[in-house]
Design goal:
The protein is mainly α. It has 16 helices and eight strands. It has helices spanning 30-37, 43-57, 75-86, 103-114, 126-140, 145-161, 173-177, 191-197, 208-212, 227-233, 248-256, 282-293, 297-307, 313-323, 336-342, 347-357, and strands at residues 67-70, 91-96, 118-122, 166-169, 188-189, 236-239, 330-331, 334-335. The strands form three sheets. Strands 1-2-3 form a three-stranded parallel sheet. The chain has a three-stranded mixed sheet with strand order 4-6-5. Strand 7 (330-331) and strand 8 form a beta hairpin. Helix 3 packs across helix 11 and helix 13 (297-307) runs antiparallel to helix 14 (313-323). The longest helix has 17 residues, at 145-161. The termini are close together.
Length: 387
């Protein structure tokens, strides 16, 4: 009898260890159920709903922008921008600067501008950002906490400051990957969604002054506008994926046809070459997801491909076993030590942090209770399939 066991969806390969994730009595996860439901959606009706919204918010006297598009420069925000332009809107594209921007990431941000839009990029104090990144890596096991806060707060702050009510986001993560049931059909992004979906975990911006001794005035861009400010402008955020069938692979194909650059091989820690190309810290972020929950972007993308008929489940199990959860030696060709040096951390300290966040219920242990690592410093999961 196994003392430890990871349960997986019978349709895809997403495990029940994922936070706020449900697998029903038939063994099918929320993400697969949501995708099956799409077959019954009247997308023509959804498009009409989208037209009603953009016609309501369009600035007909041309005194301001019609909407804001949060843009990383990635495949999805490139496709979002193309789609919004096709519908005749005049958007302001807003980029919350990433922490360690890659060369290909910079090129893709510049490519967004070439689509024919105005663009604004907001960067936070890099010295403070590095301190926050190390602090959150050590305390909550997330090097990307600061980035995931600001990609949601900065566009909303710009919307308030420039009085642009409509923000058009891309993917509804709950709908695409499975999440809280009440969020699957909720198309509005607000403060609550920031706290639940923005990846902030148990840490809030308001905690940092006490925990790190940071002055509040240094945390403006990390702070969501007040309810009063939002109501005054009438800010509303919607997900484009609610109105049009969302598909990251197709988004990447459309983006590539319009100047978007992909990696020369599958990105380390993934099975695609067109995602997470901007931030050199992402491999660390995804690795801690594996340490905590036993899955990473390999599982995510295999599950996405299974739902769309691009991969068999049996094939996905083997791919996840072979490629998932690898120790993050490098990312986009940049060595781990270089990424760690940016935040004032060395490999020995990093490995200790990794051990602190490793969920021992999910991995094979030696007789002393220490997780076993192979010759490549990789952990070994207790099971990769429902057995």
């Amino acid at each position: 009898m196994k003392l430890n066991y990871i349960k997986y969806c019978k349709s895809c390969i997403t495990p029940a260890t994922k936070p706020d994730f449900k697998i029903n009595v038939d063994g099918i996860c929320a993400g697969c159920q949501s995708f099956t439901y799409r077959k019954h959606i009247d997308w023509k009706r959804k498009e009409k709903d989208f037209l009603e919204i953009i016609n309501k918010y369009k600035n007909n006297n041309h005194s301001n922008y019609d909407c804001i598009i949060p843009c990383s420069g990635g495949k999805d925000s490139t496709d979002q921008t193309i789609k919004v332009l096709e519908y005749g809107l005049n958007p302001l594209c807003v980029t919350a600067s990433t922490d360690m921007l890659s060369e290909i990431g910079r090129k893709n941000i510049e490519n967004i501008k070439k689509l024919g839009v105005d663009h604004m990029e907001v960067s936070t104090d890099p010295n403070l950002r590095r301190k926050i990144n190390l602090f959150t890596l050590e305390t909550i096991g997330d090097i990307s906490w600061a980035e995931h806060i600001t990609i949601f707060t900065i566009p909303v702050r710009i919307a308030v400051n420039m009085r642009i009510p409509l923000i058009i986001w891309g993917e509804n993560a709950s709908n695409e990957h499975g999440g809280p049931a009440n969020d699957l059909e909720n198309n509005i992004f607000d403060r609550r969604r920031l706290e639940e979906l923005g990846g902030i975990g148990s840490l809030r911006t308001s905690d940092l002054p006490d925990l790190m001794g940071i002055e509040e005035k240094k945390l403006i861009q990390y702070t969501y506008p007040s309810k009063k400010e939002l109501i005054d402008v009438g800010v509303i955020g919607i997900f484009l994926g609610y109105y049009f069938p969302w598909d990251g692979k197709k988004n990447a194909e459309i983006a590539a046809q319009n100047g978007f650059m992909t990696y020369h091989k599958n990105v380390e820690g993934s099975v695609v070459n067109y995602e997470n190309l901007d931030n050199l810290q992402m491999r660390i972020h995804d690795y801690f997801k594996f340490l905590k929950y036993g899955f990473d972007r390999v599982t995510d993308w295999c599950s996405i491909h299974i739902r769309r008929g691009r991969m068999k489940r049996e094939e996905a199990v083997e791919i996840a076993r072979e490629w998932g959860g690898k120790y993050p030696d490098e990312y986009l060709g940049v060595k781990l030590e270089e990424v760690l040096r940016e935040i004032g951390c060395d490999k020995a300290r990093f490995d200790k942090i990794c051990n602190n966040f490793t969920n021992k219920k999910l991995f094979k242990l030696d007789p002393s209770g220490k997780p076993i690592r192979d010759n490549h410093n990789n952990l070994i999961k207790i099971n990769y399939e429902n057995v």
